[in-house]
Amino acid sequence: MCGIVGLMIKNPAMRGEIGALGLPMLSAMSERGPDSAGFALFTQDARPDWLKMSLLYDPPATSPAFTWTGLQDAVDRALTIRTEIHVRGRHARLAIPIKETAPEAVVAWLRAHHPHVRILSTGYSLEIYKDVGAPDEVARRYGFATFAGSHIVAHTRMATESAVSADRAHPFTAGHDFCLVHNGSLSNPHEIRRALAVHGIRFDTDNDTEAACRFLEWRLRDGDSLEQALQAAFERLDGFFTFLIGTPDRLALVRDPFGCKPAVVAETEDYVAIASEFRALSHLPRIQEAHVFEPVPEEMYVWTP
Length: 305
Hints:
This protein is of the alpha+beta class. Helix content is 25%, strand content 31%. Helix 5 runs parallel beside helix 6.
């Protein structure tokens, strides 16, 4: 099962409504994925001298000694920098002044000193929030309805091949400002992992979707365009999939050659909306005037704001 959701706002005047419009889309996909949920938000307020890290505190048992401000103070002292932090429950957005330190130094410090703090994403415009629980509950927990931005990628998960946990929820990310959600299952993720390990690709979970995400990361890192990387995925990834991908300026949708996993798209002058089922789109403004269609299998669809 699982449900995918994507919304790109083409009308800048509507970007403050993206969370409010996206929440009913996520809620409609709850039956397809009741285990956990996640959402990626792309904003248009990127600061070129600052890199954002989306962090999740995910220990085996809650430690009363941990605080996000304590982590921030420790990072600042250890690396002689001055970061900014914005906290949402178990998640935090840490902004790093990249003129003062390399992001890799922060990543290395976090992994050495706070192994239970998961680095969900890095980028200039991307923020990730994901957690275990019913989609509506997760959305309330992190204030999804208040989000503002140009596009979102979201997912509701019904676990079939790995444990139900926050780090195994979607979206998955790779590199900077890149995320992916997946409806389906891959039959060769371990083969992909072994092949990518030779190229120094690091994995954080045993989720099959992460294998697909890291495969695309490798292809993009080696110079492929997004379209070329997706074409390579058709050739190497075995299984059933609908992938929805977000970058700072694009949403991309692909279905496997058999089209086993559903998807529907609605496009107007104001937005592009994507979901696993039409009922997730029925509340959107002027939906009766939208161009609504089912994406063709093994066809790449790419939209820009």
